[in-house]
Design a protein that fits this description.
- 50% of the residues lie in helices and 24% in strands.
- It has three helices and seven strands.
- A four-stranded antiparallel β-sheet has the order 1-2-3-4, covered by helices on one side. Strands 5-6-7 form a three-stranded antiparallel β-sheet, with no helix packed on it.
- The longest helix is centred in the first third of the chain and has 27 residues, at 11-37.
- The protein is elongated.
């Protein structure tokens, strides 16, 4: 099974990425405030802060619209470099309202959350995961 989602279409993923990008902007302005406090030129510092903010905003727009792909092959679920053996997870929680499935895994490099943008995809993924877990 293969499915694609975009961050802009999933409320949980969108909140996570927007919070991360907002934190980057706040850190950038805090650093700018520190540089001004220690005596750097106000104009130069504000120009650098504006350029940094522009790049973070462009990164945010790109991140929100980029399609991301998951797939389940055999007993593994893959997302880019991460993979999780579905027979070794401790369980999973389905949140159809927020279009996510949380996998309970102890591995550091495992896929922990599956995001969806289509309610039909989450139902199909749930059936596939339940079928794999029932066999093992």
């Amino acid at each position: 099974m293969i499915w694609t989602y975009r961050v802009i279409n999933n409320p949980v993923a969108k909140k996570k990425w927007l919070s991360f990008c907002l934190a980057l902007i706040v850190l950038g302005f805090a650093y700018t405030g520190y540089k001004i406090y220690i005596g750097e030129s106000l104009g130069k510092s504000l120009i650098v802060a504006a350029i940094f903010t522009l790049f973070v905003i462009l990164y945010t727009i790109t991140t929100l619209g980029k399609p991301r792909h998951y797939y389940i092959e055999g007993t593994y679920v893959y997302y880019k470099p991460f993979k999780t053996d579905l027979t070794k997870i401790d369980g999973f929680e389905v949140d159809e309202k927020n279009l996510i499935i949380k996998l309970k895994s102890k591995s550091l490099f495992a896929v922990k959350t599956l995001y969806f943008e289509d309610p039909e995809d989450i139902k199909e993924a749930r059936r596939v995961i339940e079928r794999i877990r029932s066999r093992w």
